[in-house]
């Protein structure tokens, strides 16, 4: 079985390779790393520990990478770390949130990424039509939804945030994940854990009622008992940017953005690995550890270090391989992934991509029944995805007007003046996108 990883020079690729070596039964015997940056490809290849059962090949040619692929993992970063830094600083400069996937930063990143992601989808359709595309590329919900217009149900988006939330909630109440069924629903980086069922009983109310238990895990400390009890659910960690927007804006203005931190740390790794290839694995591990320790630091603050159990490496690689196992004919699984809504949430369009628990087998991923969204949840999901769909329309329809609308209607922007400033600066910084939007 051949796995192609797009963005193969990306920093988190060794996590996927490490997880693969623990799953010899999956049947992957070749991994093709594709990246447009040969230097980054070489550094990551030096990090990977040799595994005789899995051949590694690296290439900068998409036409060389894709033929014969059974699975394609897409983890590209159009514009690199510098693009992310510009997105975040551009937003902060006009007084709104700068973050890779949320608000103005997420819309800018999405618009810059969509032309490339759609070109990749068309290349897969031509060169590897039977492959499954598993999308990690952020903003994951937006990119998955756009890619589906080319590849249909053979695109599934993944994220480790919901899995991490469910894992931590189970751990807090002393349950194994395999013993609990989670009602988690929303869109990528904007969802809620609304029940946690064990032996026919929802244990989430008991968790929400106990201050000490809430304080024992990340989301409980992040949001606080009062807000969680008021919501009656546990939000995805990225909802901190909505529920505590003023506080996080202050924190970001006073320090480095996440993009600046990652740009500097990871640039240091790539340079050091190129200078001393034998030490690449050691250098990578030290940088990875610091990356995980600092995740969402602007929300947690320096006095709330991450739990040791959450520092092993994100978890998205395990989600991807669980998904791959089920799709390739292994044991069917229940996984939280990004798929078309269908009739799952009748308040939303059928083709809108939601993030929820699905049954996954060789035929694909199908959402499991869930309770309706509350009015608050529905309103926030609809408003954010309407803005993201504006970004998709802007790129696919070459419409500057749709791009302006995308920024203006997002609930974390909400200003035509600011929307104009964001769009004008984005197009000035990205002539290729400016050409797309006329």
The tally of strands reads 13
The DSSP helix count reads: 21
CATH architecture of one domain: 3-Layer(aba) Sandwich
- The share of residues in extended strands comes to 15-25%
- Kindly name the structural category: alpha/beta
Q: How would you describe what is shown here?
A:
The chain has 438 residues and is α/β, with parallel strands linked by helices. Among the domains are: 2-157, NAD(P)-binding Rossmann-like Domain (Rossmann fold); 162-243, no CATH class; 247-300. The protein has 21 helices and 13 strands. The protein has helices spanning 13-21, 38-47, 62-65, 80-93, 103-127, 140-151, 161-172, 204-209, 211-214, 218-223, 225-231, 240-243, 245-254, 258-275, 280-293, 297-300, 316-327, 375-396, 400-409, 416-429, 431-436; strands spanning 2-6, 30-34, 55-59, 71-74, 132-135, 155-157, 181-187, 190-198, 201-202, 234-235, 333-340, 353-361, 364-367. Strands 7, 8, 9, 10, 11, 12 and 13 form a 7-stranded antiparallel beta sheet that branches. Strands 3-2-1-4-5-6 form a 6-stranded parallel beta sheet, with helices on both faces. Strand 8 and strand 9 (201-202) form a beta hairpin. The longest helix has 25 residues, at 103-127. The radius of gyration is 21 Å and the shape is globular. The model has no long low-confidence stretch (mean pLDDT 93). InterPro entries: GlycHydrolase_4_CS (IPR019802), Glyco_hydro_4 (IPR001088), Glyco_hydro_4_C (IPR022616), Lactate_DH/Glyco_Ohase_4_C (IPR015955), NAD(P)-bd_dom_sf (IPR036291). Belongs to the glycosyl hydrolase 4 family. Its cofactor is NAD(+). It comes from Jatrophihabitans lederbergiae. Keywords: Glycosidase, Hydrolase, Manganese, Metal-binding, NAD.
